[in-house]
Specification:
Chain lengths: ~375, ~375, ~375, ~375
């Protein structure tokens, strides 16, 4: 675990107990479909979390967030079950949205758009656009969606893709081009002008509501729905950026710890060629590599959280962590599958799901290559002449 | 492509045309479920293949098989679509079963158990046993299923797992311990003593009939159902072993070629940071690595096929190929996903399926580690003293 | 840098200045041979370090050592030049020997055997034995050298190999089998019964005195030369073990930082195919990988140093760090060579030397595989049953 | 071995015998310095090779070259000892120079410049220029050296770097810019206007004459010394390119086979932790990886040689092979070092030298990254639109 306050340890301990006792027994529940747990099931899980005092555990009563280091501790605990992170309401994109709204939204907007999410409703972040249209993906400057002023209102039009949790969300945050830059808008969902066109069938499958293609068709919003300043959307995205990357890392590190434990247990139990798998160096070395890489992930998370806690935006630090941790967690999950052989390919073990989720994570929040590209730019800028 | 005869090239050309024109348009068909295409859909596809003259294309009229080199050419063509390999009836486990029955079964057995499979029926190979019971997996010596003589008959009891295609198969081959060794038995399916207990939910999903846990409950078979000699089951498994490994490699190389082409097309089309993805070295180098590794796979397949054609069992050569190609194809498929970003995670592209299938392939037919273990043993045996 | 005290930062700052101003200009000195700087040159460098107040900078006046975290900071600074770590007297094996003698030796022994080393004399650790004799290497239990009691004295016989710095050392520490275990003995060098047989020609080349095969031929030592308790030699080796691993990591991380800076400067300057190398992603991504891995090394060093400072022997933690950091630093150095092309292969850049030294480091202090083997054992011990 | 003619096998057999019986015993000869064997020692070795009938074994009496496939077989045999490739006169740059002169030089030029090299004299290829001047390296279009017509003569001026074998060579081939392109010139060496400025101290060390920085200072050459057509120098470089890349691959594959055999023998002999190293999967798997990768290298060499034999320039095929084989051979050599532990770091085994040579090979004849860059360009050119 990263360096902890007693407070964070205490919260993480409660989250751990809740997940172990109440959530893991539900991981095979039939209400979890290929596109994630149903909205009704999510609501039920969050009721359980509320009752256990672990709903939205990284936000204190009153709305203050734990420090980034503390949050890392709590989210690693929550990630121990993919369903657990959903249950306690620290999953993407909600967690990142809560953070940004906390930082940027007015009190009135917080009451209307943030408070329900803190209480267990869901939210969606309408940023990514279809690749087929050459819309915004890794390169946010390619934003195609427009918001046009019309009297006191804005009219928003555009196509969005990979909108996680769009179905069932109550709060939407929409990024659109406006004169002088990009602007974020808040919208209550569902909304007739926010049309869910198609649910994508993706390799990952834990995020409630799945991933959607969405059309924004003459979405009219009043000025009160502008988040922060007009034209400042990209700078708010930066506020959200590094913390959201980091909580992704924390959650999936937690999940990989679980996968590793399953693989260790399997390898200690299963015999082949005259001894337990774990006694074969070909297996034992893979588990040793897991141990090393999980520690490196934990250390990098702690480091970046510390940088964030110091007040920095941690843009390049979080790029380093996202690139390194994304790849490392995938190697860990992949080794767990491999160690478990055929069993590792089945849904009889959480390992298979973790493998799929972590594969997606190498792309979500910026593919590894985009982070390396940004780091190379930075190295160039700082190179001696 | 590997070195070809005109005959193999001609057949592969017809398979290629058939898949491009008739099968690829059906890849999104709703009759393909998480556990593979439905039996009815498979039957329909095979009718199409028969009509196009490409059903079971690696077996000549009269029953002779193409050479291993020729087969490699044809199966690489068939693998271009995962559904294609099913359609033309060269998929696992049928292709390996056909080969073994052709080599070992009596004419009467061939008429009864092989001929339907050649004509498009399906078969299953009951070898693997549950890990939870410490049954046979990578280590075949751990076989627990028993066949006990009872007058003129044998009574077979045991638990099997990961029995691919068990549902809907008409021919079963069962491996069981008998006095003096292990023996293979033939059984017509479905059979009341062959109880399908549970369909596994696996990462891969193209094999018709999916993967099953099966109980053999006092399965009574007459002596006529013994394949070859009593006690010689392991040696027949060896006959099947290397060719089956190799055709797996050929099929999935074909599929990875397809995935690579999709990734190239995407990278040439999609813009980011001011230029096409393919103009970013971070992407272009991944595609170059694919090019290199696909060529290495092709060369290894050609080499092992040549060894088999020379009459060798090619045990260690096929271990080298399976280990190397399994890992290489996974890297290729993984790079294709990565290059395509979010799109690569969706079922909008065949890349995602190829990724899942090839992940499983690293475990099926012996995990990479088992092959390296066998190779290390061989190196030791041949080391200078 | 790892978390620092002001004291460590101040010392490290002085070391940095000294190395930059006085040592780097001497890196091409003709008195550095294939087997390291000559003894006379080392003496001269240490005179310079003494004058600059940076000789043996990790040991305080009075003999107390800096904390492990502080030491890590100082040694990373010293490692910035391979010659620098020699100059300021923090190189292997002296640094590890100083630590162990400080912990275990009696005051009289410290005066006689430690004080000179703190003042800039050199020492050697006679542990490793020839592989050809199946002597102690990675597996210390294979120790062949014996010490036999003879009245008040011990008579030591055996063959040692890879004895770093044997030529020119004034203090020797000899590990030998004794009744009831293994024992360490102290010896003043040179000594006629400690015969330097052959200097090994190795890939690395910075350690003064090089690496030697040594015969111990009826080496007679009085009881006063026993370090600590008879039979407790292995436990003292454990005291030395983790700190020595860690300082190795710190020194070579410092050296890799230097190599990386050279590679960055080269890549920013050198043009190819129409732009600076650094503008090619194929180069920039390698430098980004360096940045990430240097940070991971730094974090692991800080973590293990903290564990040591807490009073633990940090056996498995230091195994994790040695395995991970050894491999990471090699990748870093290798990328630096590759980025610099032909220039990186020449002694015109320190990069080439760092590459050679770090290659050796993957084997010194336990090859990576031995650490993974130990970690796998630990995972097994702690596995759930 | 690649597919062979009886002729190639017979020649390779003789080369193998010669190297085993006469060259390997000389590998530790004191006349081999850091910059390679002395010129006198090379002359002596080639006298031995001539006496054994294996001097320049890939060129038939009369001057015809073996086919590329045959050459691959012979050079793999020659590479079994780094000194062996020198002894039998198939080393770089001579072998590539012989090939190009055979293809391009006039009969008169062949008599004057090629015949001595075939008979055991040495040659140098003056192409590369200093990085510090932004001269030609991986990007040949950056050529700075000029040749200016002056009546019937050309006057050549420029700086060259990394000129292998410049000292002691009798034939030089100089690339220089001329009106309309680049031109190659032939020059008898030593020549007062070809000034050897500085011998580089490089990681590798087998090439006779070492690597030099050279100044061309008003080098006057008559028209008869122009190789082929004025302005066609780059196209001749292309003729030399792929075959020279391939023979590099063949030679170093031979050397890696040797290193692997040494590592296997060591691992079979050396005990640790209760069994032979080879019985540890952590070691055995590395040796298995070597086996697989050596086979892949052999197959790629055979493939590219076949493409060359079919009349193609094999530019992209040889890029694929150079990139893949350079990296693979390095991994192989690196594993051999690692398996042998401390011993692998010493010159007591050829493994250490092979490691250094193969490290350099990843850069010589185009760094891996340049080949991937070229392949990515090709993939883009051929991408569907």
């Amino acid at each position: 675990m990263t360096q902890d306050t007693a407070r964070a340890q205490e919260i993480a301990g409660r989250v751990t107990d809740f997940i172990r006792d109440q959530i893991i027994p539900l991981e095979g529940d039939a209400r979890i479909h290929a596109h994630g747990p149903t909205n009704a099931f999510v609501a039920e899980l969050r009721e359980m979390a509320r009752a256990a005092g672990v709903l939205t555990p990284h936000v204190l009563p009153g709305g203050a967030h734990l420090s980034h280091r503390e949050t890392a501790t709590v989210l690693q605990a929550a990630g121990y079950s993919p369903l657990g992170m959903v249950a306690v309401n620290v999953a993407a994109p909600d967690e990142g949205n809560m953070y940004m709204l906390h930082k940027v939204a007015t009190p009135a907007q917080q009451a209307r758009f943030l408070a329900p999410v803190l209480a267990g409703a869901r939210s969606a972040f309408f940023m990514t656009e279809p690749a087929a249209l050459q819309g915004a993906g890794s390169d946010p400057s390619m934003l195609l969606t427009t918001a046009t002023p019309d009297g006191e209102e804005w009219i928003i039009n555009g196509e969005k893709a990979f909108i996680t949790g769009a179905e069932g969300a109550s709060t939407g945050i929409v990024m659109a081009k406006t004169p002088g830059g990009a602007t974020m808008f808040l919208v209550e969902l569902p909304h007739p002008a926010v049309r869910l066109k198609r649910q994508l069938d993706t390799l990952d499958g834990i995020m409630p509501g799945g991933h959607w293609e969405v059309s924004l068709e003459n979405l009219r919003l009043p000025a009160a729905n502008v988040l922060g300043e007009v034209g400042a959307g990209m700078s708010y995205a930066q506020v959200r950026l590094a913390p959201a990357r980091l909580t992704h890392c924390s959650r999936w590190l937690g999940a990989c710890r679980r996968a590793h434990e399953e693989a260790v247990a399997y390898a200690a139990r299963r015999q082949a060629f005259g001894k337990a798998l774990i006694d074969h160096e070909g297996v034992g070395f893979q588990l040793a590599d897991n141990l090393i890489e999980m520690k490196q992930c934990e250390l990098m998370i702690g480091w970046v959280a510390g940088v964030l806690d110091s007040g920095s935006l941690a843009i390049s630090e979080s790029s380093m962590a996202k690139a390194a941790i994304g790849e490392a967690l995938f190697r860990i999950a992949d080794r767990c599958v491999q160690v478990m052989g055929g069993t590792g390919l089945t849904s009889d073990t959480i390992v298979q799901q973790v493998f799929r989720e972590v594969r997606a994570f190498r792309i979500y929040d910026g593919p590894t290559e985009v982070h390396k590209w940004a780091l190379a730019k930075k190295i160039k800028r700082e190179a001696p002449r």
